[in-house]
Amino acid sequence: MRFAEFIRDNHQRTKTAQMHLIDKFEPTFRNWSGTVNKKLAEALELRSYLNLFDIHTSEADTWLKQYPSLECSYKNLQKNLGKDAYIGEWYIVDQYNINQFANVTGDKQWIHTNPDRARYESPFKTTIAHGFLTLSLIPLLTGIVGSTDESNFSHAKMIVNYGLNRVRFPRPVKVGEKIRARTRVIDLILLKRGLEVVREVIIEVANSTRPACVAYTVLRLYF
Known about the structure:
- The protein is of the alpha+beta class.
- The protein has two domains: 1-51; 57-222, Thiol Ester Dehydrase, Chain A (Roll).
- Helix content is 47%, strand content 24%.
- The protein has eight helices and six strands; from the N terminus they run H-H-H-E-E-H-H-H-H-H-E-E-E-E.
- Strands 1, 2, 3, 4, 5 and 6 form a six-stranded antiparallel sheet that branches.
- The N and C termini lie far apart (88 Å).
- Residues 43-53 have low confidence and may be disordered.
């Protein structure tokens, strides 16, 4: 009897402990579930919103005929897809550029802003530009700022930076070095209100075989 009672009591204690754990963690699980459901709903809502801009192949001809400037840009870009589309002018990155970027972003690390210390302690023996500074110069280096002549972008009423697919900084840019952009369009997506253009942008450094930056940018052109 004592052994049977021990088994019964032990079973009851185990069941009680399980119920206690369930009571303790059930609200947490419920919150997690609610959070997951909320995030899923937000993602689906965002996808539905983005789908408003998508266009099916069967609709392409109709939309192109409605917007002659869009049709012109699309056909010209498609004709040169994968080819070098633009090679910019050389641009000198000076200490003033670097300091201005450091002030705006708050990244004032000495390798960028202290020429005297960099001369003695940096492996580059001079200051270098921020990687994100090089990246941020893409609109200027590709001719988007002040002129939209690149790759027939001039037909667009508005150009929107939609994001980046990939970015790498294979080489630092030393102060005083010259850089330029080489671009090619690698993908085109027709939208109901415009055109999505994916470009490979390579930031070259004068007298160097290694690029300072390789980025895949996504632009949306609206006509």
